[in-house]
Design brief:
Number of domains: 3
Structural class: alpha+beta
Number of helices: 14
Helix content: 25-40%
CATH superfamily of the largest domain: Thiolase/Chalcone synthase
Order of helices and strands: HEEEHEEHHEHHHHEHEHEHEHEHHEEEE
Number of strands: 15
């Protein structure tokens, strides 16, 4: 049976109440399960006949390009090297004067990143940093994939999203408005500020004419963008999608607001030790910035053009806690459902998951809740799989987090290396899983998931498979 087919439980009655064995759909159901001979055949989803529903062999979706801009690297190679080395990108803030602020640290993009390698001066001035990061990551992903986007324009879409949009531009333009008057506000302000600005710019600059929009779900934004892009390809609305998240939100207003919520770490004395997910002394997250973009493709399309396949997206789950705007639901019930949906869609058992790239923010609530969700959903297997938090090194990049962490998950699968959770020095009795403490290690990883949770009760889970 193909992994994407819906399995009926033993003894389960179909909607019309007839006996499973006597179903006239049995022959059709068996015929659909012909993957051994025709593994890449796409047939219509959700066949309805006499009350039966069959989830068929939908189009398979693979990853052919990865682009990263983070606090530990200007591109994918440098970011992955730093993460494997357990190097922190958290430093004292340089973007503004922190005098009078309670928090003086953040994970600003690596100083070696130079947007002039990707954009001319005019485009730089007309776009916020949130678009700079997105475009740089998208160009990296396209280059690695070797895809001529303009040649396939109508079949290539873009969903690259931000949780907050052009926050730096917004901060600066409000200052100009109140200090110099409305006539001095930039005519480019709106385009620089809106959350869909990065997706729109990437589409225009690359010639991608397929589905193009942005998704805003706070810190789950990047993961939702990848998940929905996966679904777009599966249903045949695009052959390829540039998908992920981007963020440039280390501004005085954002930092003051998050600090006022008591969400940020105040470990100013040793910035590199401030983000410590699952550690008993964690005191909040560290603001980060950057972008993570994947190039997703229909498997047949990728193989026909001879692309190198980096991994496969096999599942996606999206749910809501429907509980509280900032506090996760008790025991992470919403996240549990997202993990279940992603794993069921992948057609695997929970016991087959080898690694979880956790949301792992370094806040007391999140880490405790996510650990509880993993333990309740996976049962005894929770103590056999590996869990780690990339945020321990690059901080919390908000809307970019899901994109960056999906990329790290794919690299872990491809390279057979479990990224570490650094600064894990003081055990928390409530966080007692294998968090790959302080040092990366080699491992055989076949299936992995990446979790994202966002203010508003948003949950997203992406499931990936090693390409073999």
């Amino acid at each position: 049976m193909h992994p994407h087919q819906r399995r009926m439980n033993q003894g389960e009655k179909p909607a019309n109440g007839t006996d499973n064995a006597a179903s006239p759909l049995t022959l059709c159901y068996n015929a659909v399960a012909c993957e051994a001979k025709h593994p890449f055949v796409s047939v219509i989803s959700n066949i309805h006949q006499e009350g039966y529903e069959v989830q068929d062999m939908a189009t398979r979706v693979v990853v052919t390009g990865i682009g990263l801009v983070t606090s530990v690297g200007k591109d994918t190679a440098s970011t992955w090297e730093a993460i494997c080395a357990g190097r922190s990108g958290i430093r004292r803030i340089t973007g503004y004067d922190t005098t009078g602020f309670g928090v003086h640290i953040a994970a600003e993009v690596d100083p070696s990143f130079d947007i002039s390698e990707y954009m001319d001066r005019k485009e730089q001035r007309r776009n916020d940093g949130v678009t700079h990061f997105a475009y740089a990551a998208a160009v990296q992903a396209i280059k690695q994939a070797g895809l001529d986007v303009r040649a396939h324009g109508d079949d290539v879409g873009v969903i690259i999203s931000s949780g907050v949009g052009g926050l730096e531009t917004e901060h600066e333009q409000y200052r100009i408005l109140f200090e110099r008057g409305p006539d001095r506000v930039s005519p480019f302000f709106i385009n620089m500020d809106i959350a869909d600005g990065p997706a729109g710019f990437v589409s225009i600059a690359t010639g991608a004419g397929g589905p193009n929009y942005a998704i805003v779900s706070a810190c789950a934004t990047g993961a939702h963008s990848i998940g929905e892009s996966y679904e777009i390809i599966r249903r045949g609305d695009a052959k390829a999608m540039l998908a992920g998240g981007t963020e440039h939100g280390i501004t005085p207003m954002a930092m003051a607001a998050f600090d006022k919520m008591q969400a940020l770490s105040r470990h100013n004395e040793e910035p590199e030790k401030a983000s410590r997910p699952f550690d008993a002394l964690r005191d909040g997250f560290v603001m980060g910035e950057g972008a993570g973009v994947l190039l997703l493709e229909d498997l047949e399309f990728a193989q026909a053009r001879g692309a190198t396949i980096l991994g496969e997206v096999v599942g996606y789950g999206a749910t809501a806690d429907a509980f509280h705007v900032t506090e996760p639901a008790p025991n992470g019930t919403g996240l549990q459902r997202a993990m279940r949906r992603a794993i069921e869609k992948a057609g695997i058992k929970p016991e087959e998951v080898d690694y979880i790239n956790a949301h792992g923010t370094s806040t007391p609530f999140n880490d405790r809740t996510e650990t509880a969700a993993i333990k309740q959903f996976f049962g005894d297997h929770a103590y056999k799989l590996a869990v780690s938090s990339t945020k321990s090194m690059i901080g919390h990049t908000l809307g970019a987090a899901g994109g960056i962490e999906a990329a790290v998950t794919l690299l872990a699968l491809r390279e057979g290396i479990l990224p570490p959770t650094i600064n894990l020095e003081h055990p928390d009795p409530e966080c007692d899983l294998d968090y790959v403490p302080n040092a990366a290690r080699k491992a055989t990883i076949r299936y992995a998931i990446s979790n994202s949770m966002g203010f508003g009760g948003h949950n997203a889970c992406l499931a990936f498979k090693k390409w073999e």
